[in-house]
């Protein structure tokens, strides 16, 4: 019979509560009110207990970043692992990323209140590097994509998704038209920007 590790359950509950408390503080007051004291008070734990789990604010924020980003990395890994074609994976990626905006308010708050442009670009690169390289390789090998430089492919696809999300986040768009954005990206991918005129 499998024994329940109560300490593990308590640790998870406390960390989940701390994470939710950080997100609430970001929503209510912004990053300027984010102190270890404020987080402990919001989470309903003593400051000493909080320091048992996180040695300082930087350690706490590393945890928050990991909790915020990991589900996104897992979701993209699932898309890459599917048996779909590269164009379908590209479409699924766009839809998945845009759905994050609608469903993951914690990620939106984190992006808006905590990350600097440089840090945001670093996170996007870390998340997108393997994902877009994999889709590019499959699409090129299967003949679904034109022979385009992988750096350009990653820059255009990752940059477009990040820019649209950033615009929604900083404009505070409540209900963006996700399907319209997905269709618009697909049109750019398949038709391009420049009208081909007869010679």
Question: Could you characterize what this model shows?
Answer:
The chain is an all-alpha fold and 199 residues long. The protein has helices at 6-29, 36-43, 47-53, 57-81, 86-103, 105-113, 117-141, 150-171, 178-191. The model has no long low-confidence stretch (mean pLDDT 86). This is TetR/AcrR family transcriptional regulator.
The CATH architecture classification of the largest domain is Orthogonal Bundle
Q: Which residues sit in consecutive blocks of at least 5 with pLDDT less than 50? A: none
Q: Kindly state the mean pLDDT as a whole number? A: 86
Instruction: Note the gap between the termini.
Output: 77 Å
Q: What is the alpha-carbon Rg in Å?
A: 20 Å
Task: Please report which band the strand proportion falls in: under 5%, 5-15%, 15-25%, 25-35%, 35-45% or over 45%.
Answer: under 5%
User: Helical content, roughly?
Assistant: over 70%
| CATH third-level topology of the largest domain | Tetracycline Repressor, domain 2
Oligomer: single chain
- Summing up helix and strand content along with how strands pair, one would put the structural category as mainly alpha
Shape: elongated
Give the count of helical stretches.
Answer: 9
Which helices and strands, and how do they pair?
Blueprint: H1 6-29, H2 36-43, H3 47-53, H4 57-81, H5 86-103, H6 105-113, H7 117-141, H8 150-171, H9 178-191
DNA-binding region: 35-54
Organism: Geovibrio thiophilus
Pfam families: TetR_N
Structure at a glance:
The protein has 199 residues and is mainly α. It has 9 helices and no strands. The protein is elongated and about 75 Å long.
């Amino acid at each position: 019979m499998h024994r329940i590790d109560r300490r593990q359950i308590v640790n998870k509950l406390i960390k989940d509560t701390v994470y939710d408390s950080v997100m609430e503080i970001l929503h209510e007051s912004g990053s300027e009110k984010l102190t270890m004291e404020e987080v402990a008070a919001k989470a309903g734990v003593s400051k000493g207990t909080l320091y048992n789990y996180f040695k300082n604010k930087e350690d706490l924020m590393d945890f928050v970043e990991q909790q915020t980003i990991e589900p996104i990395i897992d979701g993209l890994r699932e898309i890459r692992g599917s048996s779909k074609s590269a164009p379908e994976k590209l479409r699924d990626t766009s839809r998945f990323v845009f759905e994050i905006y609608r469903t993951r308010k914690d990620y939106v708050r984190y992006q808006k209140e905590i990350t600097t442009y440089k840090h945001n670009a670093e996170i996007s690169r870390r998340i997108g590097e393997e994902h877009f390289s994999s889709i590019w390789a499959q699409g090129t090998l299967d003949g679904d994509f034109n022979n385009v430089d992988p750096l350009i492919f990653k820059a255009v696809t990752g940059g477009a998704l990040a820019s649209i999300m950033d615009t929604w986040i900083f404009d505070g768009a409540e209900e963006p038209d996700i399907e319209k954005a997905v269709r618009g990206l697909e049109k750019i991918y398949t038709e391009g920007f420049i009208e081909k005129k007869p010679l």
